[in-house]
Design brief:
The chain is mostly helical and 363 residues long. The protein has helices spanning 3-17, 27-39, 43-51, 54-59, 62-92, 103-110, 132-141, 151-160, 193-198, 213-226, 234-246, 251-263, 267-281, 296-309, 321-338, 341-356, and strands spanning 100-101, 122-126, 145-146, 167-168, 175-179, 201-202, 209-210. A hairpin with a 6-residue loop joins strand 6 (201-202) and strand 7. Helix 1 packs across helix 2, helix 10 packs antiparallel against helix 11 and helix 14 (296-309) packs across helix 15.
């Protein structure tokens, strides 16, 4: 990472930790800050945090304030679309089935602080696997259809993934992801789905439920550190920071959360989440919450890799060799975390063969 980009990223992290640090920024600093925030999908979040303090908002120069206001308006528009879609879905879904909102939809419908300015790209729903066919059929009857037509790709999703292929419907702005688990069934960390459903919280006045606060954090941690390639995912870390800050700070609650992570097999992933939240976002982490750390060599590799992948970069910046290598390493880790070696080798061979024949690829 170049020195100038490193300074710009440090400035963005500093403003996320302490919005008042925007005082004294020049227009060039603001340009880099907003472009990096946009690359990380955090520009509306940044705007909302500054707007929360009228003194800070008034101190933002006119040009960057206009960009931030536009991002805030767009996020509000997407939130309105999300609410409309959920009202429509509530009338379509079969009665008597638990339907759980996940990730951004859950944060927004609960009114959590980390949803303020978060831009909704899709809707993630979770149902029990036994209810999956009934829910899929109900959605299909209303025009929702898979975006994947290839037979192998369909099998990949339905046998080895934790969700059906993404669904879209004419006249609907958002894509729909229908889950039966919160991690692929073949992955190293597979949280206990029945334990998740046993702790559901119904949303007042709504057809939907959400995971318990601890399980929402479990999902956010597993999603970022197992089910993504880490590239440009600072927003997901900001989500985890927000969820951690909302939890009760007493030792009993912290010990309960640590035990929940252990039960779901997410200890190692949770350590990474705490480490990078504390390091980059200044998240207060009580000593009782820390699981055992990974071996030092693995921590050094992750530190080297995540600085070059998870943190944002300017879109036109030429990708340095170390960044490209870190990206390939992150992709290898992603696939290795999601599949056992025999399945990974089989899947990779099929992808290579399909690529050679010019066929579409998924997964």
């Amino acid at each position: 990472m170049s020195a100038s980009l490193q300074n710009a990223v440090s400035r963005l992290l500093g403003v996320l930790r302490e919005p008042a640090s925007v005082h004294g920024l020049g227009l060039g600093d603001w340009e880099e800050l907003i472009r990096l925030a946009r690359a990380a999908r955090l520009h509306a979040t940044l705007g909302r945090r500054l707007m929360a303090d009228p003194t800070l908002w008034a101190a933002v120069p006119e040009q960057p304030r206009g960009h931030l206001q536009a991002a805030i308006n767009f996020a509000a528009h997407r939130r309105h679309l999300l609410e409309l879609e959920l009202r429509t879905l509530a009338d379509v879904l079969p009665p008597g089935i638990d339907v759980v909102l996940l990730k951004g939809a859950a944060y927004q419908m609960q009114g959590l602080p980390n949803a303020d300015g978060r831009i909704a790209a899709d809707i993630d729903l979770l149902v029990r696997r036994a209810d999956l066919d009934a829910v899929e059929a109900a959605l299909a009857a209303q025009g929702w259809a898979s975006t994947v037509s290839d037979e192998y790709d369909q099998r990949y999703y339905r046998e080895w993934s934790h969700e059906l292929p993404p669904m879209r419907a004419d006249g609907h702005a958002l894509e729909l992801d229908l889950h039966h688990a919160i991690a692929p069934v073949t992955s190293r960390c597979t949280p206990d789905v029945e334990r998740l459903f046993a702790a559901l919280l119904p949303l007042p006045g709504s057809r939907f439920s959400v995971l318990s606060p601890a399980d929402q954090l479990v999902h956010a941690v597993v999603h970022l550190f197992q089910d993504t390639e880490l590239d440009g995912r600072l927003r997901d870390l900001v989500d985890i920071d927000g969820l951690l800050r909302m939890l009760p700070a007493d030792d009993g609650s912290m010990r309960s959360l640590a035990a929940r992570m252990r039960h779901h097999g997410a200890d190692r992933l949770f350590w990474y989440a705490l480490h990078y939240c504390e390091r980059w976002l200044g998240t207060p982490v009580p000593a009782v919450l820390w699981p055992s750390p990974p071996p030092r060599p693995i921590r050094r590799v992750m530190d080297w890799m995540l600085v070059r992948t998870l943190l944002p970069h300017l879109p036109e910046a030429r990708s340095a060799p170390d960044r490209r290598f870190a990206g390939e390493l992150a992709r290898l880790r992603y696939h290795r975390m999601r599949m056992p070696t025999p399945l990974l080798l089989r899947h990779a061979a099929i992808k290579i063969w399909r690529n050679a024949r010019g066929l579409p690829r998924r997964g």
